[in-house]
Design brief:
The complex is a heterodimer of chains A (about 120) and B (about 110). Chain A has about 120 residues and is mostly beta strands. Chain A has no helices and 12 strands. Helices cover about 0% and strands about 50% of the residues of chain B. Chain B is globular, with a radius of gyration of 13 Å. Classes of the chains: A mainly beta (about 120), B mainly beta (about 110). The interface of A and B includes residues 42, 101 and 106 of A.
């Protein structure tokens, strides 16, 4: 079975400092992985996705993530946090064989950005 | 991507009643999904709704409680039946366009009193 573990439920950063959100996955095959963001009272927005092409994936709003198979990780980073980055972030794995199309969501990481 | 709308955006309902949530997509899609997000929690898949076939429910969700319709390639409904306060959640629909990622509607915030 596929699963994702987000290692931090809450991350607080100062504006202008780097952001690191950690995600580990478990999969019996090469997975598709995603990061989504949910701003307060807003819908889910896709930040980026990994689908077995380049291991370093660039997304929207300056975010990027690196797929590391040896570490089964897919951490999300941003060099410089902005106040608008305050939101809930979800690491997601796609179950792509007998459960094609289904997504398994991590528990989420709440990001707080302080001035 | 796809533009997805949901109706209603929010509702307050009394226990024992039912609410039907509508999901409309601006293009034809094969696979649609319904999720529940309980307060302060992550998303949990309720069911997969493919046009022309019965919805497939995940463990813990049953058709009698969450009947789903998928009459065409742009529309689906989810009904939350015989509601209790534990059903208070955000309900979201999503679509998959072939690249693996899903695009989500804005959600329906349901409060059951």
């Amino acid at each position: 079975a596929q699963s994702v573990t987000q290692l931090d439920s809450h991350v607080s950063v100062s504006e202008g400092t780097p952001v690191l959100l950690r995600c580990n996955y478990s999969s019996s095959y090469s997975p598709s992985l995603f990061w989504y963001v949910q701003h307060p009272n807003k819908g889910l927005q896709l930040l980026l996705k990994y689908t077995s092409a380049a291991t370093l994936v660039k997304g929207i709003n300056g975010f990027e993530a690196e797929f590391k198979k040896s570490e089964t990780s897919f951490h999300l980073t941003k060099p410089s946090a902005h106040m608008s980055d305050a939101a809930e972030y979800f690491c997601v794995v796609s179950m792509t064989t007998d459960s094609w199309g289904k997504l398994q969501f991590g528990a989420g990481t709440q990001v707080v950005v302080t001035p | 991507s796809a533009v997805i709308s949901q109706k209603p955006s929010r509702d307050i309902c009394q226990r024992g009643t039912s609410l039907t949530i509508q999901c409309q997509v601006d293009s034809q899609v094969t696979m649609m999904f319904w999720y529940r997000q309980q307060p302060g929690q992550s998303l949990t898949l309720i069911a997969t709704a493919n046009q022309g076939s019965e919805a497939t429910y995940e463990s813990g969700f049953v058709i009698d409680k969450f009947p789903i319709s998928r009459p065409n390639l742009t529309f689906s409904t989810l009904t939350v039946s015989n509601m209790s306060p534990e059903d208070s959640s955000i309900y979201l629909c999503s679509v998959e366009l072939g690249g693996g990622e899903q695009y989500f509607g804005p959600g329906t915030r349901l409060t059951v009193t």
